[in-house]
């Protein structure tokens, strides 16, 4: 059996794998497939969102992109792809903890269940399968059905909770990953069916990839506070809360955090060089989640747009009214930091828990800006404006997700659409390495 497995591995290495991408979004998984170092071709993609499809088609015009509801696909539809690999990132809302958490009873899981049911009926199944979702999917009934299907279909599989932070990328974005391949193929590293966090030695900048040289497993997880912040954003948008209700929520948060507390947190963050997400992740959790030494992680400055003019930068400066009211709930980082908080699809439109903001003037007096001493709103605003706080541009968010530099948006895409689409996306380099590991 071992010799047969080795022969199968060699056969796969020489074959150009046919990949089909489900719930394809803007094509993050497509970018990962292209970057994985394994001969692969995305032959088809399926997505129902018209805005996402416009971006996908802009970047990958050669792909057969289907704007169809996967609930209506039959076993013949899936078989017609003649695919070696299925990759997918199903809707995550049914698995968030602050939402309704409908799990398998949420209608948004119907398409995924249809894929799994038809997979079981296919005479020729794809050799490889990859599923990405939020933390929370790992404890769901939907995940249990996925596992049952894979076992019934004679797949071996491994599951992971991973963040780009674990591989030196300065962005915290914990996600669940399922890797599966058909027997007699086996994984190079074995951990059974235990869900683990998987650290991989990888390149740290976009457009680079290399073979895994070391695999280390541990059991660290994302903090409940950070996950809650990410899920609150999804819940607010799903329930249709308008901006006024968001403002009310943020004002309550500000009342619970004084200026002095905010300054103390910033000082503590600087002391431990934790990357400025102190009120989201405890220092002990950070030690578990990150790569260890600061020199193993890239700095935020490596991901900024070098060609961003002063005029363009002004477009991303925090507006005065937002700055004065909500600065105490912002996660402020600098070019020297090695961590940003998860960018959600509400970034730059909702304030709390949607992603970090960048302090661009390091010469300004931070202590003065956050002093608890009495001063007028005008005086305080001027001190805060001196910090020149701004949002990360969509291109910079894409850089932190390791999208290639030639990835772009159609001219008709609005800034809000770009943030929303990137907030729903994934880290390309992390996925590329997982695909490479799965096929190895």
Automatic annotation (TrEMBL):
Q: Which UniProt keywords apply?
A: Methyltransferase, S-adenosyl-L-methionine, Transferase
- The catalytic activity of this protein is classed by the Enzyme Commission as 2.1.1.204
Molecular function in Gene Ontology: methyltransferase activity
Q: Which PROSITE patterns match?
A: C5_MTASE_2, SAM_MT_C5
Disordered: annotated span: 222-299
Compositional bias annotation for Basic and acidic residues: 253-271
What is annotated as the active site?
92
Q: Which InterPro entries match?
A: C5-MTase, C5_MeTfrase, C5_meth_CS, SAM-dependent_MTases_sf
Write down the top EC class of this protein.
Answer: transferase
Question: What's an example Gene Ontology biological process for this entry?
Answer: methylation
Biased-composition ranges, Polar residues, are 222-232, 242-252
Q: Which Pfam families match?
A: DNA_methylase (PF00145)
Q: Which family does it belong to?
A: Belongs to the class I-like SAM-binding methyltransferase superfamily. C5-methyltransferase family.
Protein name as annotated: tRNA (cytosine(38)-C(5))-methyltransferase
- Native source species: Strongylocentrotus purpuratus
């Amino acid at each position: 059996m071992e010799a047969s497995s080795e022969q199968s591995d060699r056969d796969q290495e020489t074959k150009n794998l046919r990949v089909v991408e489900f719930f394809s979004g803007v094509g993050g998984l497509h970018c990962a497939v292209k970057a994985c170092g394994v001969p692969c071709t995305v032959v088809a993609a399926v997505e129902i969102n018209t805005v996402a499809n416009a971006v996908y088609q802009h970047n990958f015009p050669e792909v057969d992109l289907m704007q169809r509801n996967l609930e209506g696909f039959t076993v013949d539809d899936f078989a017609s792809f003649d695919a070696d690999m299925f990759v997918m990132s199903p809707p995550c809302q049914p698995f968030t903890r602050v939402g309704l958490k409908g799990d398998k009873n949420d209608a948004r899981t119907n398409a995924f269940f249809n894929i799994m049911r038809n997979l079981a009926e296919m005479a020729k199944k794809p050799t490889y399968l990859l599923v990405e979702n939020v933390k929370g999917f790992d404890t769901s009934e939907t995940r249990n059905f996925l596992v049952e299907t894979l076992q019934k279909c004679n797949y071996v599989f491994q599951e992971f909770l991973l963040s780009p932070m674990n591989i030196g990328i300065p962005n915290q974005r914990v996600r669940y990953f399922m890797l599966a391949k058909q027997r007699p193929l086996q994984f190079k590293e074995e951990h059974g069916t235990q869900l683990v966090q998987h650290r991989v030695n990888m390149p740290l900048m976009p457009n680079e990839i290399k073979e895994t040289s070391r695999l280390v497993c541990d059991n660290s997880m994302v903090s409940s506070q950070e996950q809650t912040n990410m899920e609150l954003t999804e819940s607010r948008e799903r329930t249709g809360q308008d901006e006024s209700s968001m403002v009310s929520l943020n004002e309550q948060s500000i009342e619970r955090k004084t200026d002095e507390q905010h300054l103390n947190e910033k000082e503590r963050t600087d002391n431990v060089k934790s990357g400025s997400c102190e009120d989201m992740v405890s220092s002990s959790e950070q030690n578990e989640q990150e790569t260890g030494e600061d020199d193993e992680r890239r700095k935020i400055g490596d991901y900024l747009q070098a060609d961003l003019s002063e005029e363009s930068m002004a477009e991303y400066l925090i507006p005065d009214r937002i700055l004065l009211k909500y600065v105490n709930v912002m996660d402020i980082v600098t070019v020297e930091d090695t961590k940003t908080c998860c960018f959600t699809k509400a970034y730059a439109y909702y304030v709390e828990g949607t992603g970090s903001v960048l302090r661009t003037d390091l010469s300004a007096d931070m202590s003065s800006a956050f002093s608890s001493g009495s001063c007028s709103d005008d005086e305080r605003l001027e001190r805060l404006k001196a910090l020149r706080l701004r949002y990360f541009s969509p291109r910079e968010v894409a850089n932190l997700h390791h999208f290639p530099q030639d990835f772009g948006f159609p001219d008709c895409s609005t800034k809000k659409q770009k943030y929303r689409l990137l907030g729903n996306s994934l880290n390309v380099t992390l996925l590329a390495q997982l695909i490479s590991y799965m096929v190895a």
